[in-house]
Design brief:
The protein has 249 residues and is α+β, with helices and mostly antiparallel strands. It contains five helices and six strands.
């Protein structure tokens, strides 16, 4: 577009802003006008500080309200999860109680079943260790039975925080079986071999000689001995169970 100045003495007006037809804003002039009208500088500072303070308070209020709403939503979700997990924990505790009750009953049955084979083991070990020229008169149980019946269940004591976290295994009380063996022999060396054979048995321990004396039997001097022993329950790996079979006739 071509512009023609018809007034040679007049100055050409400058274009304001960056675009055609948009007036320019003189911020310096506006600040000077405000400064000229406001005579008290401290009053102006107080007004500006009040405006800034109210703005900061509004921002903090909005942020706190937003945080409160988020925390309330998190609390509602936590309460819902707590109610759901409480039901799950009650069901888990009930299932563990049933499992522990069944385990105790099974252990009682197992303990009673294992106690049935005490005397077969004792007689088998004594007969296996008995040498020639030696015979037995009595094999008695000198311990008191029924002090710790298998039905009297106990649990392992909890010691410390770690023990409380794990489940206590049931402990089956068992009686201590003490034996007294009275026998006779015509050979003192056979008697010593008998003691050594009993000590090598996995079912017998603490073989001690209580008394040894010379007695007369059919006008012959023989040695009578009294032994004390303790029945030992070996590890289950040492036991070998065989099926009971009956011969056909």
């Amino acid at each position: 577009m071509i512009e023609i100045n018809l007034l040679p003495g007049a100055k050409k007006a400058k274009r304001g802003g960056g675009g055609r037809g948009m007036p320019s804003i003189n911020f310096a002039a506006i600040g000077a006008a405000i400064s000229a009208k406001v005579k008290d500088k401290f009053l102006a500072a107080a007004v500006i500080s009040s405006v800034v303070g109210f703005g900061a308070i509004a921002i903090l209020f909005l942020s706190q309200r937003n945080r409160q709403s988020n925390l309330r939503a998190a609390e509602d979700k936590a309460m819902e999860d707590s109610s759901k997990y409480a039901v799950t924990l009650r069901e888990r505790a009930r299932a563990q109680a049933r499992r522990d009750s069944a385990l105790i009953q099974l252990n009682i049955i197992k303990a009673i079943d294992e106690e049935r084979y005490i005397w077969p083991h004792v007689m088998d070990e004594v007969s296996r260790a008995l040498p020639i020229y030696t015979w037995l008169r009595t094999v008695n149980n000198t311990s008191v039975q029924g002090v710790n019946p298998a039905a009297a269940m106990k649990t392992a004591p909890d010691t410390g925080a770690k023990a409380k976290k794990r489940r206590a295994e049931p402990v089956i009380p068992k009686d201590t079986i003490r034996l007294r063996i009275i026998g006779r022999t015509v050979d003192i060396q056979a008697f010593t071999r008998f003691m050594r054979s009993l000590e090598d048995s996995p079912f017998l321990s603490n073989i001690t000689l209580q008394k040894s004396e010379v007695v007369l039997e059919q006008q012959h001097e023989i040695t009578q001995f009294t032994l004390d022993a303790t029945y030992t329950r070996p590890d289950s790996t040492l036991l070998r169970r065989l099926p009971l079979t009956l011969g056909q006739r």
